[in-house]
């Protein structure tokens, strides 16, 4: 009898507990795989009020169920890596089951660069390539250079002192516009932004547009635009992510990303420290160094700090964002000492950049919206001369010179998108003011203003056809600027066949650095040229995207072609390779033409394969006389393979890239204004990574190898006197581990 009574009591307790649990969590969403009908654990479930305010973020349990208490009807969004996201509404007391469909189409990234409103990349009138945060996480990416290294149409160049730069469509340096959330990045050294200084831990994705975007983004957008879109926390009331990186080549990095949402207010902070202790690859060993010690390093020690703070207020369609980003980098150059005095004359190169911006956007009516951004950027580069007494182990600063650049910009656009209308409109302004000061600026009045208004219209005569003409009107305080036209056409021939063609005129005024800055360090001897002319380019681009969809796979084919015809082209010419001396000069004309072809396959439970080929040709009219040199071609190849072991939350990836032989220009002795071709030999690169998630996806670990073919240097040859030069391109085979933990 007693046993029976205890049994009844146990049942009553269980029923009471069940009722209490059901009452406290009165609503649930069950997430299952549409194919297997099994629950999906660790799926992200986010709940919002009907007006858009965040309620809570959840993760489904091992059986795919996310249970929660709900007092009013709410919106939900459900997502899981590798599946199509779903959204809808749910009421208190509902228990719904959602079937997620496996995602094979990789064109679903939402893009904003040059758009009237955010839209999916495959719907954009521009051909926009996207590198998203999932790809970067799986590869263990640290900076922008690594993030872009596997793009077929991009060629990276590494300089041990100034960092990593890139080239698109045969153009690089000042011809590429770099943006962070639409704000230009200021602080080029030797014409390039050091991509290795730009941290990726707080980046959501990167948008890459090839070809001139001068109508929308103005000067320096001849070759294309790279827009870095930072993370926007909309799903977690509190989030904190810590990460660390280490490799066998003296890199030690760590950082954090944190965000909190309180009502309509969001505060986000991020920071990281990247430390590289330097590598000597002995390309320039001083054989007369009697001390037997080689202090000189081709890849110099560098310590970089990045920090960011952002406040955002969101109320329905209105958004206000105040943001500041800070970067400080110190690079050390150690020189071999005098063998008799043990005195060495070293250098410290310190770069500091601060970007401060305010962005406001709102939807005034159902058809009219606006976006306005204002920003101030400060960039300073200081060179310290250090006397190092190696016998006494003392270091004394003997001299210091600095160069400072200020940029003030504001950009605003109004977008009129009437419902059920075949015509949409965009108009706005883009104002930039630059000023340079410092000992190495060769002009006390080194400043330039660029004031522009732009307008475009998008006409959709049919649902499948979009035509977008645009104009930009420019007043530049230093150079005469033409009216800049463009026209873009997108034709969705059939559902899975998308054709784009465009023409755009590009305009680029020389930068203050190119005009006035004399830049000298251990690896460079660059001289400013105040006589430079502004360059213009007529550019033609065309691309085709064809998708073949099956039940369990998708194949994507993307051929594209381009042709750029430039006048008064600003080019950095090496005048003395042995002394590393170079000067910017105008060439009469430059033509680049080429083609890209990419093919990708996704399917069969997590397999992804991709291959790419790009071919670029260059031709020059040195004096503008109409006499063009024969085209010289060079190519890139990429092969990428990935398998996602979803059951084990593990991704194995291999990426290969071959850089073909690359041409360059050298001045013809005794014939000013005439040049001839030199060449840098080809090399290939391979990285392999394995990433795995633990503890409900909170811990992510990536291990792998980069530069597995053990590249150190490349040879430049073809000089008339028979000389050849080795340039450092990497510091050898690298094995690394990266870990991140989200609280």
Discrete helix count: 5
Percent of residues in beta strands? over 45%
Which of globular, elongated, flat, extended, rod-shaped describes the shape? globular
Radius of gyration equals: 28 Å
The share of residues in helices is under 10%
Q: Which residues sit in consecutive blocks of at least 5 with pLDDT less than 50?
A: 12-23
**What structural class is derived from the secondary structure elements?**
mainly beta
Instruction: Give the oligomeric state of the chains in this entry, treating copies of one chain as homo and distinct chains as hetero.
Output: single chain
Number of strands: 45
Which whole number gives the mean pLDDT?
Answer: 88
* Main pleated sheet: 22 strands, antiparallel, barrel
Termini separation: 51 Å
Written overview of the protein:
The chain has 743 residues and is mainly β. The protein contains 5 helices and 45 strands. β39 (662-667) and β40 form a beta hairpin. The longest helix has 23 residues, at 2-24. Residues 12-23 have low confidence and may be disordered.
């Amino acid at each position: 009898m007693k046993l029976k009574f205890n049994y009844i009591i146990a049942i009553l307790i269980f029923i009471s507990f069940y009722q209490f649990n059901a009452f406290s969590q009165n609503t649930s969403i069950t997430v299952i795989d549409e194919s297997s009908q099994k629950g999906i654990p660790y799926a992200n479930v986010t709940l919002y009020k009907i007006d858009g305010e965040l309620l809570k973020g959840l993760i489904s349990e091992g059986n795919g169920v996310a249970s929660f208490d709900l007092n009013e009807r709410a919106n939900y969004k459900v997502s899981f890596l590798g599946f199509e996201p779903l959204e809808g509404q749910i009421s208190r007391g509902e228990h719904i089951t959602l079937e997620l469909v496996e995602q094979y189409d990789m064109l679903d990234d939402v893009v904003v660069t040059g758009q009237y409103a955010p839209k999916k990349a495959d719907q954009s009138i521009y051909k926009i390539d996207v590198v998203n945060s999932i790809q970067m996480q799986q590869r263990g990416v640290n900076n922008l250079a690594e993030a872009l290294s596997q793009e077929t149409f991009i060629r990276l160049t590494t300089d041990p002192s100034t960092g990593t730069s890139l080239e698109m469509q045969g153009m690089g340096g000042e011809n590429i516009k770099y943006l962070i959330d639409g704000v230009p990045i200021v602080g080029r050294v030797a014409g390039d932004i050091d991509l290795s200084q730009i941290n990726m831990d707080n980046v959501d994705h990167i948008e890459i547009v090839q070809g001139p975007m001068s109508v929308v983004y103005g000067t320096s957008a001849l070759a294309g635009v790279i827009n870095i879109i930072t993370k926007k926390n909309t799903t977690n009331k509190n989030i904190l992510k810590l990460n660390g990186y280490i490799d066998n080549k003296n890199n030690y990095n760590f950082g954090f990303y944190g965000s909190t949402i309180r009502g309509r207010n969001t505060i986000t902070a991020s920071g990281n420290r990247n430390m590289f202790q330097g590598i000597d690859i002995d390309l320039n060993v001083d054989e007369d160094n009697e001390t037997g010690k080689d202090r000189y390093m081709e890849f110099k020690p560098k310590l970089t700090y990045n920090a960011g703070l952002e406040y955002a207020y969101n109320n329905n369609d209105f958004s206000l964002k105040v943001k500041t980003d800070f970067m400080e980098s110190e690079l050390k150059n150690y020189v071999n000492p005098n063998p008799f005095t043990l005195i060495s004359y070293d250098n410290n190169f310190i770069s500091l950049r601060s970007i401060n911006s305010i962005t406001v956007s709102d939807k005034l009516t159902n058809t009219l919206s606006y976006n306005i951004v204002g920003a101030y950027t400060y960039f300073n580069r200081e060179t310290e001369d250090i006397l190092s007494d190696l016998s006494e182990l003392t270091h004394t600063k003997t001299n210091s010179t600095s160069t400072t650049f200020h940029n003030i910009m504001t950009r605003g656009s109004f977008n009129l998108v009437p419902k059920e209308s075949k015509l949409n409109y965009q108009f706005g302004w883009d104002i930039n003011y630059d000023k340079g000061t410092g000992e190495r600026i060769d002009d006390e009045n080194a400043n330039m203003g660029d004031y522009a208004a732009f307008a475009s219209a998008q006409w959709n005569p049919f649902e499948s056809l979009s035509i977008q003409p645009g104009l930009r009107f420019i007043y530049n305080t230093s150079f005469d600027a033409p009216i800049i036209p463009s026209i873009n056409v997108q034709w969705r021939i059939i559902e899975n066949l998308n054709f784009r063609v465009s023409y755009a005129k590009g305009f680029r005024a020389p930068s203050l650095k190119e005009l006035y800055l004399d830049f000298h360090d251990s690896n460079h001897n660059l001289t400013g040229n105040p006589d430079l002319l502004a360059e213009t380019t007529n550019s033609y681009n065309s691309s085709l995207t064809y998708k073949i969809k099956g039940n369990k796979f998708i194949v994507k084919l993307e051929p594209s072609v381009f042709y750029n015809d430039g006048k008064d082209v600003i080019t950095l010419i090496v005048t003395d390779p042995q002394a590393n001396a170079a000067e910017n000069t105008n060439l009469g004309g430059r033509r680049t033409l080429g083609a890209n072809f990419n093919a990708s396959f996704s399917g069969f439970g997590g397999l992804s394969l991709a291959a790419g080929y790009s071919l670029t040709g260059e031709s020059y009219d040195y004096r503008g006389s109409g006499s063009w040199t024969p085209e010289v071609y060079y190519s890139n190849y990429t092969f990428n393979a990935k398998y996602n072991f979803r059951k084990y939350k593990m991704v194995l990836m291999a990426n290969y890239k071959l850089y073909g032989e690359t041409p360059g220009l050298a001045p013809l002795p005794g014939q000013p204004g005439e040049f001839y071709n030199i060449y840098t030999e080809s090399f290939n690169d391979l990285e392999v990574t394995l990433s795995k998630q633990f503890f409900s996806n909170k811990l992510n670990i990536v291990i792998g190898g980069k530069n597995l073919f053990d590249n150190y240097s490349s040879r430049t040859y073809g000089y008339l006197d028979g000389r050849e030069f080795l340039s450092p391109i990497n510091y050898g085979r690298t094995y690394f581990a990266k870990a991140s933990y989200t609280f």
